[in-house]
Amino acid sequence: MIWPILGILFLLMIVAFFLFKVPHLVMVSSTTSNLIPEGSLKISGVKYSQDYKNGGGKWELKAKEAYLFNKTQIVALKDVLLKLDSFKKNSFTIKGNEGDYFRESGEIILRGDVMGRSSNGYQIETSLLIYRQKDETVETDEPIRVIGPFFKVKGDGLYIDLKSKKVMVKKDVCTTFMSEDIDR
Fold it and tell me: According to the model, what pLDDT value does residue 97 have?
């Protein structure tokens, strides 16, 4: 006679547990969700890294804020830092005010006061820079300034092939040498 009563009490406790737990779970998920309009997810303090296919290094992406748009596979970034590290070559650090990471194509676009520095002392300044993960290139069509140990280069557009270590300023190039050791 006691077993049926205990069984009914046990079932009532399970029902009460689900009745009181479910509204609480819904309330927590709706208040902690960072979904913003357009179906994106806001994330703070982002750090993402990936190894190069050839195993010669990795690239790392950091941002103060990121918005993930699932439908388009685009991540919009604020206060961006991109590190391109190579075990055999120089590494590069590029900063920008904003950026976009296109997950499907592997392109990272940095915008707004873009500053890049290499581990061997070269510096790039521009307003927009595109890093293409597949072919390990950096490119822009915007005005640029490149500063090296003994020269400054200004021009419109830049193409850098990180694999072959080739740098090309596309047009309207003006170069200034700053060394006293250059013979005329």
Answer: 93
Give Cα 70 distance to the centre of its chain. Answer: 16
For 95-146, how does the pLDDT look when each residue is reduced to its tens digit (9 = 90+)?
999 999 888 888 999 999 999 998 888 899 999 999 898 888 899 999 999 9
Q: Per-residue DSSP letters for 104-173?
A: TTTEEEEEEEEEEEETTS-EEEEEEEEEETTTTEEEEEEEEEEE-SSEEEEEEEEEEETTTTEEEEEEEE
Tell me, what's the pLDDT at 163?
A: 78
pLDDT in tens, 168-179: 999 999 999 886
Q: Which residues contact 73 (CB under 8 A, 6 or more apart)?
A: 102, 103, 104
CA dihedral sign, ordered 82, 144, 89, 151: negative
Locate 181 and state its tokens: 């050791």
Contacts of 52 (CB under 8 A, 6+ apart): 58, 59, 86, 136
Rounded alpha-carbon distances, angstroms, from residue 139 to 15, 23, 109, 171, 174: 61, 52, 9, 13, 18
